[in-house]
């Protein structure tokens, strides 16, 4: 596998163009299986139940994050490569005292170029600036690319919720995985 060099990015607070950016980017990913999370084991060693590959789209809604852009205890950050928006991060202070990444998404054409890592670097800076003890986020057991990214970055699994999505789809095999990046004291 060839590693591409990281893109030189300008990461800034979302502006009035955020909705246009969301409408013009591709955030789907291919699901190839459902992992069975095994606490303490690397993602590469988790058993995976393969499925016929399909595209997954969570349907990002810009209105959901309006309150973050209008102040408060969070922000929406957009990564730009030149004139092109290529990814975004929504972060806030969670009631538990951790920073919470509500959403991290990279346009499909920019994946593999370090965009997510650079957004995580900014999230770490944002969190430390607020003297928070770490960062938490959630992904799903069918988004193995995201799981590998978070693991490589230093996050650890804090828990798994197998029932979180049952109200949406009673037969789902999708489970929520809660990841934590704990800062050194």
List keywords for this structure.
7-stranded mixed beta sheet; Aminopeptidase; about 180 residues
Task: Provide an overview of this structure.
- The model has no long low-confidence stretch (mean pLDDT 89).
- The longest helix has 15 residues.
- With 185 residues, this protein is of the alpha+beta class.
- It has one domain: Gcn5-related N-acetyltransferase (GNAT) (Aminopeptidase).
- The strands form 2 sheets. Strands 1-4-5-6-7-9-8 form a 7-stranded mixed beta sheet. Strands 2-3 form a two-stranded antiparallel ribbon.
- The protein contains 4 helices and 9 strands, in the order E-H-E-E-H-E-E-E-H-E-H-E-E.
Topology diagram in text:
Layout: E1 10-13, H1 18-23, E2 29-35, E3 48-56, H2 66-69, E4 74-81, E5 84-93, E6 99-106, H3 115-129, E7 134-140, H4 144-153, E8 156-161, E9 176-182
Parallel strand pairs: 6-7
Antiparallel strand pairs: 1-4, 2-3, 4-5, 5-6, 7-9, 8-9
How large is the share of residues in beta strands?
35-45%
Shape: globular
How large, in whole angstroms, is the Cα Rg?
Answer: 16 Å
Biggest beta-sheet profile: 7 strands, mixed
What proportion of the residues is helical, as a percent range?
10-25%
How many structural domains?
A: 1
Mean pLDDT level = 89
CATH architecture assignment name: 3-Layer(aba) Sandwich
Query: How many runs of DSSP E, i.e. beta strands?
Result: 9
Q: What is the CA-CA span between the terminal residues?
A: 36 Å
- Coarse structural class: alpha+beta
Main-sheet strand order equals 1-4-5-6-7-9-8
Q: CATH topology, which one?
A: Aminopeptidase
Instruction: Enumerate the spans where pLDDT stays under 50 for 5 or more consecutive residues.
Output: none
* CATH H level, superfamily name: Gcn5-related N-acetyltransferase (GNAT)
The CATH class assignment is: Alpha Beta
Instruction: Tell me the number of helical segments per DSSP (H or I, 4 or more residues long).
Output: 4
Order of helices and strands: EHEEHEEEHEHEE
């Amino acid at each position: 596998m060839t590693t591409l060099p990281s893109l030189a990015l300008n990461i800034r607070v979302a502006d009035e163009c955020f909705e246009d950016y969301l409408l013009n980017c591709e955030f789907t990913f291919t699901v190839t299986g459902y992992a069975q999370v095994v606490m303490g084991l690397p993602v590469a060693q988790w058993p995976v139940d393969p499925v016929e590959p399909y595209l997954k789209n969570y349907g990002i809604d810009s209105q959901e994050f309006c309150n973050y852009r209008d102040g408060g205890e969070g922000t929406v950050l957009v990564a730009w490569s030149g004139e092109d928006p290529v990814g975004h991060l929504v972060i806030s202070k969670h009631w538990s005292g951790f920073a919470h990444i509500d959403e991290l998404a990279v346009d499909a054409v920019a994946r593999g170029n370090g965009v997510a890592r650079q957004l995580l670097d900014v999230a770490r800076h944002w969190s430390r600036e607020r003297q928070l003890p770490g960062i938490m986020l959630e992904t799903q057991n069918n988004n193995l690319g995201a799981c590998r990214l978070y693991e490589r970055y230093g996050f650890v699994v804090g828990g798994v919720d197998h029932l979180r999505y049952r109200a949406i789809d009673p037969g789902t095999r999708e489970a929520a995985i809660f990841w934590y990046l704990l800062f050194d004291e």
